[in-house]
């Protein structure tokens, strides 16, 4: 018997199962290789995405901090607000405090009016009865108390709210350190 007869007579017995096992082993090895390489790729994309998200969040948080500190800087520059908050008021009598507060109040009010010019959300007096119509802006009006049903709602105006009449942003200072609101002044 030659080898070809042996293979053809026993084809169903051992050639087909051997080939099937060989294909299964190759498929399993290929699956392991693909799984390992794809999990690394997915992990890299995940790290890159979340790393980028973290960096973007950090940049946004730093920007918000800088803008907040800048707002305080403007109120300090124009109205000496931080100086007032830093002062120990127990050293002064009420008349002296009143005179200082009047000046600080006027200067800070001018600054806020200059850049924001706040306007009331609802132009009624506090304590008046108001009607809130359907389709009202939930960002502009906060309903409190026993709220049920659908608009229109009637109630007492507790606070008129504020919105920006204009949004003129003062120039950011040239100070690179965001923690510095106003530099110290030294006369020489």
User: What structural class is derived from the secondary structure elements?
Assistant: mainly alpha
Oligomer: single chain
Strand content: 5-15%
Q: Which series of helices and strands comes N to C?
A: HHHHEEEE
Instruction: Based on Cα principal axes, name the global outline.
Output: elongated
**What does the average pLDDT come to?**
82
Distance between the termini: 114 Å
Give me the count of strands: 4
Radius of gyration: 36 Å
Provide a compact summary of the structure.
This protein is mostly helical and 188 residues long. It has helices spanning 3-9, 11-79, 81-86, 94-115, and strands spanning 118-120, 129-132, 153-156, 162-164.
Descriptive notes:
By secondary structure, this protein is mainly α. Among the domains are: 11-66; 122-165, no CATH class. Helix content is 55%, strand content 7%. The protein is built from four helices and four strands, in the order ααααββββ. It has helices at 3-9, 11-79, 81-86, 94-115, and strands at 118-120, 129-132, 153-156, 162-164. The strands form two sheets. Strands 1-4 form a two-stranded antiparallel sheet. A two-stranded antiparallel sheet has the order 2-3. α2 (11-79) packs across α4 (94-115).
Task: Write the SSE topology.
Elements: H1 3-9, H2 11-79, H3 81-86, H4 94-115, E1 118-120, E2 129-132, E3 153-156, E4 162-164
Antiparallel strand pairs: 1-4, 2-3
Helix pairs in contact: 2-4
Task: Give short descriptive properties of this protein.
single chain, 188 residues, mainly alpha, two-stranded antiparallel sheet, 4 helices, 4 strands, 7% strand
């Amino acid at each position: 018997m030659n080898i070809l007869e042996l293979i053809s007579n026993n084809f169903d017995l051992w050639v087909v199962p051997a080939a099937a096992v060989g294909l299964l082993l190759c498929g399993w090895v290929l699956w392991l290789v693909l799984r390992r390489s794809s999990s690394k790729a997915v992990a890299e994309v995940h790290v890159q995405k979340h790393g980028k998200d973290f960096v973007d969040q950090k940049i946004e948080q730093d920007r918000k901090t800088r803008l907040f500190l800048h707002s305080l800087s403007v109120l300090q520059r124009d109205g000496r607000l931080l100086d007032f908050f830093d002062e120990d008021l127990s050293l002064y009598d009420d008349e002296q405090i009143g005179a200082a507060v009047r000046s600080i109040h006027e200067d800070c009010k001018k600054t806020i009016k200059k850049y924001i010019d706040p306007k009331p959300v609802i132009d009624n007096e506090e304590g008046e009865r108001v009607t809130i119509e359907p389709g009202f802006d939930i960002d502009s009006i906060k309903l409190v108390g026993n709220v049920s049903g659908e608009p229109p709602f009637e109630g007492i105006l507790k606070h008129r709210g504020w919105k920006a009449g204009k949004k003129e942003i003062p120039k950011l200072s040239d100070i690179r350190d965001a923690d510095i609101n106003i530099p110290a002044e030294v006369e020489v």
